[in-house]
């Protein structure tokens, strides 16, 4: 009983510790005078947002999407193309990002969710690659070479996002908001139906609930959140590339979610952080770092109960 109570306590404590660490990290960077930590943490948080969005449909809806990175690319290209045409205001670029990603998710999701299992994986992969090759064909916006942004999105005419610390805390605020939103959704009736569909669609249909609409809604919401991550990534790098939406990136997002622990948004954040930190460290140790990285990920998935979060909490999930 004591072990179960301790595990539950740790499961509830971990989310606060993770978010507090991100909130206080700039202070540590200032003390040791290392600006790289801040830039790297911004990248980690952006991919954590994308991982949380994927965790919504993968961990709670059992929808293994191999085209999720397409929404990161769509969000990035929406901001980049608007900037290229002289539109820098966030109140234009943010709604445009949500609309573009939402419509793409609605259309592709309506088709993809008619399938199951490996067929769903393959059709989401096909849609993702379709978006990727469309981006490479946009010669007016850089094509294969990508698109350079000469600045960051403005807020009511102000270029406050050009300040490194301001941008950091904007990304941090978005991460917290996305984490809270997704937790709220899965703990609501909507989330219970979504999780019920993962276990048995026939039972839901027997009590008069059609899970298709709920699954599609979750798919669209996840796509829109990933689009926001893409918009932030474009601003962070001040560059947009078709590589953002390649299937390799989708595979990395799945690894992040599984590495952190399925069925947990805090695990998705932890998985994204662990994945990118390990990648950064090993790449400085040897140029063949993938030979170490790959087996490590496999071992964690095979033997780490509940991923990294499970190792910390003893298998308890925070939701």
TrEMBL record:
Keywords of this entry: Cell membrane, Membrane, Transmembrane, Transmembrane helix
GO cellular component: plasma membrane
Regions that span the bilayer: 12-32, 44-70, 90-111, 118-135, 166-182, 212-233, 253-278, 290-312
Cell location: Cell membrane
GO function term, MF aspect, one: branched-chain amino acid transmembrane transporter activity
Top-rank taxon: Bacteria
Keyword Transmembrane part of the UniProt annotation: yes
Topological category with respect to the lipid bilayer: Multi-pass membrane protein
Protein name as it appears in the record: Branched-chain amino acid ABC transporter permease
Organism expressing this protein natively: Stappia albiluteola
């Amino acid at each position: 009983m004591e072990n179960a109570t301790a595990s539950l306590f740790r499961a509830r404590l971990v989310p606060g510790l993770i978010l507090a660490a991100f909130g206080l990290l700039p202070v540590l960077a200032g003390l040791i005078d290392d600006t790289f930590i801040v830039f790297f943490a911004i990248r980690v948080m952006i991919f954590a947002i994308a991982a949380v969005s994927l965790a919504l449909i993968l961990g709670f809806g059992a929808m293994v999407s191999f085209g999720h990175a397409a929404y990161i690319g769509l969000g990035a290209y929406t901001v980049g193309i608007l900037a290229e045409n002289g539109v820098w205001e966030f109140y234009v670029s943010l709604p445009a990002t949500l609309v573009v990603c939402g419509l793409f998710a609605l259309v592709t999701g309506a088709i993809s969710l008619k399938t199951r299992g490996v067929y769903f994986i393959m059709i989401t992969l096909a849609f993702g690659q379709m978006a990727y090759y469309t981006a490479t064909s946009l010669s007016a916006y850089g094509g294969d070479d990508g698109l350079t942004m000469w600045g960051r999105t403005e807020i009511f005419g102000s270029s406050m996002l050009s300040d490194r610390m301001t941008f950091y805390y904007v990304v941090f605020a978005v991460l917290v908001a996305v984490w809270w939103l997704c937790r709220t959704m899965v703990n609501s009736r909507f989330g219970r139906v979504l999780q019920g569909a993962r276990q048995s669609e026939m039972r839901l249909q027997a009590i008069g609930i059609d899970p298709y609409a709920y699954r599609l809604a979750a798919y669209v919401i996840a796509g829109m959140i990933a689009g926001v991550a893409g918009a932030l990534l474009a601003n962070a790098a001040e560059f947009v590339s078709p590589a953002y939406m390649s299937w390799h990136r989708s595979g990395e997002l799945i690894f992040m979610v599984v590495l952190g622990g399925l069925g947990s948004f805090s695990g998705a954040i932890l998985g994204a952080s662990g994945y990118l930190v390990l990648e950064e460290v090993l790449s400085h140790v040897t140029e063949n770092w993938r030979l170490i990285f790959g087996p490590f990920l496999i071992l964690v998935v095979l033997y780490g109960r509940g991923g990294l979060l499970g190792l910390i909490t003893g298998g308890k999930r925070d939701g």
